[in-house]
Amino acid sequence: MAYQALYRVYRPQSFNDVVGQQHIIKTLQNALVQEKFSHAYLFSGPRGTGKTTAAKILAKAVNCEKAPIAEPCNECATCRGITDGSISDVIEIDAASNNGVDEIRDIRDKVKYAPSAVRYKVYIIDEVHMLSIGAFNALLKTLEEPPAHVIFILATTEPHKIPLTIISRCQRFDFKRISPEDIVYRMKEVLGSEELEVSEDALYEIAKASEGGMRDALSLLDQAISYSTEMVSLEDVLSITGAVSQAFIVKIVQAIFNENIVEALDSVESLIKNGKDPARFVEDLIFYYRDVLLYQASEENAYLLEKAAVNEEFKELSSKMDSAFIYKVIAELNQTQQEMKWSNHPRVLLEVALVKLAQSSTSQESSLPYQDILQKMNQMEAELQQLKEKGIQVDHTAAQAVQTEKKQTRQSRSQYKTPVGKVNEVLKNATRQNLETIKRSWAQVLDTLKQQNKASHAALLSNSEPVASSDQSFILKFKYEIHCKMASENNNNVRDNLENILYTLIGSKREMVAIPESEWDKVREEFLQGQQSDGSSGQPQEEDPVVAEAKKLFGEDLIEIQE
User: Fold this and answer.
1) Packing angle between helix 246-257 and helix 261-273, nearest 10 degrees?
2) How wide is the angle at C-alpha 249 spanned by C-alphas 247 and 254, nearest 5°?
3) 467 phi and psi, to 5 degrees?
4) 148-160 burial by CB neighbour count: b if 16+ within 10 A, else e?
5) Alpha-carbon distance 353 to 333, whole Å?
6) How would you label 499-516 residue by residue, b for 16+ Cβ within 10 Å and e otherwise?
């Protein structure tokens, strides 16, 4: 028999073999045991996360001769027939190549006939978002009220392209990206059966490169096994993926920070000689700086890091680099990456970018003095405290000056200016209904970002919340000021992507206005006070304008009036 790829040989045949989707597997198993399964399902999520596999296992479980059971037995004639594709009552359709009205009408005509070999006729429609509008309309009525012997399972990587009339007629299950730990666990099971040796570092590098897809991970593992002669090492995996090691990235980052142009250019020479893609390297570099930025914001963000491993070297770099310098580096690298798409000489663009960044003195001018000043301020405060404890009178003016200077230094480091005018303009025209429209779609916005391989965008917006909206704009409150600044400056097209997804979901274009959580209460209070002063100059009204405005913004159920 011809050789089969690992992802085909080890395709799960039972729910217990599906990794990383326990929230879905448990629900389906309970429904199978209780015989409360639906007539239509929608499986959505990124590629290689188990959608079609789960659909085939579900088709076996409902038709297994030992049903009702939580797992197909894979031993009876029905289970074996569905596995090898010999039972014609389980029909798998590729909507990408069968997306016309005629194909769906053919399904609609045949669906009324009873199954010939099993209890339930199961239609698995893969990439269902590729169907035309006419095909969706043809499927609509059949999907809502199919015969009792029919089950539809729709699978898609882009659920936002499916009409809401279709989604509302299905039980929807969102498959999430599989964590690197789960991918490594599954690969170790495969390697145990194959009796192959792969280093732990190589497995985790494959897991990262697969971006949450089990099929991609097994394909890369298959390729790495073919590439290596004995044990698969980290270097073997880096060679086939075109990525570079973290040590190499750290070397470049340190060269830029230390303004060591020679070392930076030597690293580029080594990169090209080893056959690495300059564009891929720039992307890895951007993500590394992004990881440093998130770690600087809060050490609790360590689970969001994609390229960096939190070790002593990483912590030291994070403490040295200033956020303003990182913003500049990311902007420069992002521009270089865009220019590489239209250039025949990507190496030259990479070298120019690194030289430009290494020659910049921003890193030392903006970071080191700040650390020195902060250290001196802390020493002065400690000395003042010692003097107080000894009973010596202290000139509080000097202490206040230290605190003021320290506060100003921190404020100058932030450099984000809240757009108060835009915020007030949104508040003037804001309504409760507009805000509810945004809030209802917010979870789907974050899900769409993740499904579009924009995990960094979703992570940036995870600590944000819509707080007010008009017909044209909405205010997005951020927990961390650094995230607010990144979104407002449209780093990596965060704002554009967010506004486009929102437009798709709610049907109207709305501009995002970002504000930090620390500024929101102050700006809102000043706006309400301004509304009160404007209303006091006119004729007496039956209701206080401040109360009316507050009700309009936040709803009567959240307002408590105190005299």
Assistant:
1) 150
2) 95
3) -120, -15
4) ebbbbbbbbbebb
5) 7
6) bebbeebbeeebebbbbb
Q: Confidence band (pLDDT; 50, 70, 90) for 561?
A: low
**CA dihedral sign of residues 217, 219, 221, 227:** negative
Secondary structure of 510-550 in HEC code, one letter for each residue? CEEEEEEHHHHHHHHHHHHHHHHHHHHCCCCCCCCHHHHHH
Say if CB 160 and CB 504 are below 8 A apart. yes
Other CB atoms within 10 Å distance of the CB of residue 426: 24
Pairing of strands 171-174, 464-469: unpaired
At 544, the pLDDT band (50, 70, 90 cuts) reads: low
What is the torsion angle, in degrees rounded to the nearest 10, for the CA atoms of residue 79, residue 80, residue 82 and residue 85?
Answer: 180
Tokens matching residue 345: 């000489």
List Cα–Cα distances, 384 to 146, 380, 391, 404, in angstroms.
81, 6, 11, 15
- Return d(Cα 214, Cα 218) in angstroms, integer: 6
Weakest mean pLDDT among 347-361, 410-424, 479-493? 410-424
Confidence (pLDDT) at 420? 84
Tokens of 258: 């230390």
Q: How far, rounded to the nearest angstrom, does the alpha carbon of residue 399 sit from its chain's CA centroid?
A: 46
Closest CA to 79 of 95, 107, 58: 58
Name the residue type at position 307.
Answer: K
| Max CA pair span of the chain | 98
C-alpha dihedral over 288, 290, 291, 293, to 10 degrees? 130
Within a 13 Å sphere around the CA of 45, how many CA atoms are in the beta-carbon half?
23
**Whether the Cβ atoms of residue 43 and residue 153 lie closer than 8 Å to each other:** yes
Beta bridge partners of 153: 41, 124
Alpha carbon of 2 to those of 5, 8, 9, 227, 352: distances in Å? 10, 12, 12, 19, 49
Q: Beta strand 40-44 with 121-126: parallel, antiparallel or unpaired?
A: unpaired
**C-alpha–C-alpha distance, residues 505 and 160, integer Å:** 8
For residue 74, give the amino acid letter: N
Residue 483 is encoded by which pair of tokens? 């995230």
Q: What share of the chain is helix, strand, coil (3-state, %, to 5)?
A: 65, 10, 30
DSSP 232: B
Residues of the chain above pLDDT 90, percent: 16
Cα-based angle 142, 143, 144 (whole degrees, multiple of 5): 90
**Encoding tokens for residue 458?**
């979703």
At which residue do the structure tokens 């209070």 appear?
A: 525
Q: Pairing relation of β-strands 464-469 and 473-478?
A: antiparallel
Residue with structure tokens 């970018």? 353
The enclosing H or E element of 467 equals strand 464-469
- Confidence tier at 536 by pLDDT (50, 70, 90): very low
pLDDT at 365 over 70: no
Which DSSP string do the residues of 283-327 spell out, in sequence order? HHHHHHHHHHHHHHH-GGGGGG-SS---SHHHHHHHHHS-HHHHH
Q: In which residue are the tokens 């995870």 written?
A: 462
Q: Is the pTM of this model over 0.85?
A: no
Q: Do residues 474 and 406 lie in contact, with contact meaning Cβ atoms separated by under 8 Å? A: no
Q: Nearest Cα to 294, choosing from 89, 122, 555, 491? A: 491
